[in-house]
# Entry
Amino acid sequence: MAVPLAASLLLAACGGGAKPGASSSSTSTASPTTTAPPTASPTTDPNIPVAARAHTPAGAEAFVRYFIERLNVAWTGPQAGILPPLCQASSKACAAYETTATRLTTQGHRYDENPVTIKAIGALDSASPNHLDVVANVVQEPRSEIDAAGKTIVTDKRKDLRLDFELLQTSQAWSVASIKIMK
# Structure
C-alpha cells in the first residue's frame, strides 16, 4: 500500500512511522561491538549545490528545493539511501520518507512521475543563525505507484500542503531536523 507524502508526515508526527521490531530489548550474551548504531547520522550529501550550502535564508530555501528534488528521485527511481544524508537522525518525517523509498526499492515499485511539485518557498525570520524554518507550499500530485510491469498499485490524490521545514546548519550544510504540516 502506498503512503503518500501527507500520510508519511502524519504518521511521523504521530509516531506511527516506526514499526515495532521483534523485540525492543535483548538478553543477548554477546560482547558489545564498536560499530556505530544504525541511527547514526550519515555523512552529508556531497552533491548539495553550492547555493544550498550557504548559511543564509536564501541558502536554506535552496536546500529545501534540493531536498524535495531528492525526495522525488527517491520515490520515482526508486532509490533508497539518498535522503538520510540530508537529515538529522532524529527526524521522524525523513525516516518515514526513507521507509517509503526502501519499500519501493525492495518491492520493485516506483512512482510514475514526481509526486511533489513546489509552488513557493520562503524562509522565516529566526533569532538563531544556525536554525531556520522554511515554509514550502507544495502539491502532492495525483501520481500512481506502479510495479515493474507498469501496473498501477495505487494512485495518490492531489493535495495542497504547506510544510514547515525546521533546518539546522551543520559544519558542512543545512540538515532537516523536522518537517510538519502547517494548517
About this structure: Residues 49-181 form a domain with the Nuclear Transport Factor 2; Chain: A, fold (CATH 3.10.450.50). The radius of gyration is 17 Å.
